[in-house]
Amino acid sequence: MKRKQLGIMKTFVSSAQILVVEDEKKISALIRKGLEEEKYSVVQAYDGEKAEVLLQENPFDLVILDIMLPKKDGLAVLHTLRKNASDLPVLILTAKGTIEDRVRGLDSGADDYLVKPFAITELLARIRSLLRRKKGLEKSVTSLTIGDLTLDLVTHKAVRGGKNIELTSKEFSLLEYFIRNKNKTLSRSTITEHIWNYNFETGTNIIDVYINHLRTKIDGGFSKKLLHTVRGIGYVMKEQ
Ligand code: CA
Fold first, then answer.
1. I need a labelling partner for 97 at 20 to 30 A (CA). Which of 46, 105, 152, 227 fits?
2. What CATH topology corresponds to 3-138?
3. pLDDT of 53-92, one tens digit each?
């Protein structure tokens, strides 16, 4: 127990979180195995509706999306995702290999596609490439904004309504994470894993303490609150 609580000492390893949407359980299991061997963390969905719910609730780094799915097909899921202005990398899996289908997938906002059957090594190579591209895009962004709050990623300074806000490095990381995932409810354990990278222990209120400090700094004195508590779950950053 003691050792686990000292997990803050653990070297920070950023492992991408990947959603696998594939109704064929055998293929899904194979993909999961391949991804986990590369230390990615994997969440599976077996139909389109479940995929949409998971996408609403979790900050994934990439989605592997089959087209032919029960309840809602992959292209419809992709359509909703892009309508919500998400720039999440999406790799389409399809049994259909015709030119028309490929074009349709890419036109719908997919970043890449792979035709079944595929080799897992090929899938992993495509994923690495998409994640690299995503990282490059994130780096080229030098500031993040929500409402009248701007976070400068170069100077690590926050400004709200013309007022400078001093942040500790932990508060900066938290705020950056919240703004990158604005309008998404983040659970305490998701936040903890991302910022501290150790398993959240029930009863540990460290996250609440940090978030309260951050909240005082960014919302104190402003009538419009940005950081909201979602009871029993965690927190969300949104304009409201
Ligand atoms: Ca399928």
1. 46
2. Rossmann fold (3.40.50)
3. 999 888 899 999 999 999 999 999 999 998 876 789 999 9
- What number of other Cβ atoms are within 10 A of residue 38's Cβ? 13
Q: Where are the domains of the chain?
A: 3-138, 143-237
Give the distance (Å) from ligand 1 centre to CA of residue 168. 47
Q: How far apart are the C-alpha atoms of 150 and 153, rounded to whole Å?
A: 9
Of residues 94 and 215, which shows the higher confidence score? 215
| pLDDT above 90 (res 226) | yes
N-term to C-term CA, the chain: 40
On the question of a cis peptide bond just before residue 70, with omega within 30 degrees of 0, the verdict is no
Residue 89, C-beta contacts closer than 8 angstroms, at least 6 positions apart? 61, 62, 63, 111, 112, 130, 131, 133, 134
CATH of 143-237, one of 1.10.260.40, 2.60.120.200, 1.10.10.10, 3.40.50.20: 1.10.10.10
Alpha carbons 93 and 97: distance in angstroms, whole number: 10
Give 178-196 as a DSSP string. Answer: HHHTTTS-EEHHHHHHHHT
Q: How far apart are the CA of 22 and the centre of ligand 1, in A?
A: 6
Q: CA distances (Å), 69 to each of 35, 45, 106, 173, in order?
A: 21, 10, 18, 37
Yes or no: say if 124 and 135 are a contact pair by the CB < 8 Å rule: no
